[in-house]
Amino acid sequence: MLPISVCIIARNEEHNIESCLQPLRAYEWEIIVVDTGSTDRTKEIAARYADKIFDYVWQQDFSAARNFAIECTANDFVLFIDSDEYLMEIDVDAILSLINMHSAAIGLLSRQNHYQMNGTDSVYVDLVERLFSRKYYHYEGIIHEQVVLKEPEKHSYGTYQIPLVLNHSGYVGSDESLREKAQRNIALLEKDLELHPDNPYTYFQIGQAYNMIHDDENACLYYDKGLSYDVDPDAEYVQMMVIGYGYALLHLNRAEEALGLGSVYDAFASSADFLTLMGLIYLRNEQYVKAMLEFVKALSCENAHVVGANSFIPSYNLGLINEMMGEKEMALAYYRKCGEFPMALEKIEELSK
Question: How far apart are CA 54 and CA 67, in angstroms?
């Protein structure tokens, strides 16, 4: 057996749990499922794959549930995977080698988050802290819980990336299911805000919850509040907050107000996601030359969190601008650089008639 216990917290996940657990069964590690009160077939399905299933009375606290799962494991090293996440890529031998090299640090895995944008499937890639030794770490925070040192005075905090990629479908679903999840999250986050009223991360997460259900007015309110604090522009959540704020303003047709994000341009100008956003803001304000410049800059960025922010998204918009300017051949050239992006394929067909 691999010296890792995989932990999954689940409740009424009969539509996801098999896709989550089945790929994990191919590897020789302990699988622990903690059920927090399912009334569907979640436990029945999980029993086909999990080594152990434990019942846990839900306490309105995600950290408490995760820490309970940690107590149930046979191994010191734990890997947390959510029930709406599915294994895509993994290199087990490399992970074991990295664990031996960084036994007191936290392993970051890559997660591909799917969501709907303009009627198409969009993907945002982030790194999340999921693999660690229970001797050094546990969870804190009632929601959007974080891995923290149990004894910070004795050990130092560190992270490293592991070769493990998950597909996350939690932001895709019916309007009803997404609204239910958002309302649950907002209630817990507001409770957390009462305990920590000056935490910009909590404001960010409330903004994200409203964003998930396309409540752009409230998303803007909470993003704006979070950004009013002295935040670190290098922090991933701060970058996400700026991007979310900008798109929410555009969705509300407040494009002129969105131009204000130019005041933080230098702090985020290395991000393809931010450059693409600024291009869209300039485009909506009919500042076409500035928009084109931002899209060209975005194409030169090596990495992007939003899949396509440094490739087909700026290329598509450069195509649009050239088309508006009557440069048909140049527009087609940019559309053809978009690969299988559906909106670009439609434009190619339209202009090729």
Answer: 13
